[in-house]
Amino acid sequence: MQRIFWTFxxxxxxxxxxxxxxxxxxxxxxxxxxxxxxxLVGVNTYPRQFQSLQYCEADMExxxxxxxxxxxQPENIVRLSTSSDDPSLLPTRSNILKQxxxxxxxxxxxxxxxxxxxxxxxxxNDESYFCPMDAVYNDLSSLVKRSDLxxxxxxxxxxxxxxxxxxxxxxxxDSGWKPLGGIRxxxxxxxxxxxxxxxxxxxxxxxxxxxxxxxxHGVFTYFLVEGLKGKAxxxxxxxxxxxxSYVNYETKKYIRLTRQESQIPLLRGDEExxxxxxxxxxxxxxxxVPPAVSGPVTPPExxxxxxxxxxxxxxxxxxxxxxxxxxxxxxxxxxxxxxxxPYRNDNETQHSVTLTRGFWMLETEVTxxxxxxxxxxxxxxxxxxxxxxxxxxxxxxxxPMYFVSWEECRSFCEKLSEKxxx
Length: 422
Hints:
3-stranded antiparallel β-sheet, 18 strands
């Protein structure tokens, strides 16, 4: 009788333990049998020589919430941010490498390890770098080699390894550095030899990874988080394949519609394992997650085009020379001059002109430095080609270019467009 009594008590306690489990978020979620680890690095504030960013910390905060919702344990997520009051959680070079090693060493066989980077990236001499908050201008030893981080991830015992890279925000000040928005170079140890290891990056090399004031996030990470919340789910689960398909489609579409630019996310890893890498499963009783559909999943409403102000300034750097543009919005204006204007010509009759779309215009004339960097000829050489008796009215890198024909101007625009990737 006593044995029956204690058996009943044990069964009651077990049932009570199950009933007392917190409900958690409805929608996406699965409590994993194995542990999951994540290092999330967001850098907003940089030294004076670098351009500071706005939403990298918000990116990682939102990503942390999404990972918690799909079964990551809070004690196994380390988030480094420039606003942290804990010195050990600042995204310095030493902290990034230290925390990566600590989590990788703790990850055991059968576990999952996620590394996410949001901040500036650079590529020099075919080597990729992530810029920590204590980066020193023109000192490569102060940056974090992406190959060092990837090697840490590669060598850990985790069965599943996933890296998110959103590390090409705008451009670095030094024109000798080119933006790096893609995954690593062709010598990356990612492929068939490293099963279960995938890298999803925000854009191709040479493209910008845009931040967006409307989303208050980087566009890539915003859709990454949305995908993890359930919008990338198909057949009741979220695989790396589903997640990348969703993020790739939505990022490209949003940037095209709002900025008239291209940002193309990339994926590296063994394609045969894409569907086997499961990040989360849908709860059967969930009503908060839309049903799985075939093909890309789109938001209910398309993103609204960015509203630019007249005169908004944009600077592009080509071959070390800055090209400053001003935004000319669509609208109607009066072209020509009134009859009362002195020295007017007969062909300046005032008339209404309507621009159906906005455009960027260089805020100065094309300078002699711009022309020489694109066309390879100086003002003196152009004068000799024109075979004109007119004297040089000004010579210097910041002086306007002249002695050029219409065809040469057209050729200049075409070559400059090629350099800008248009």
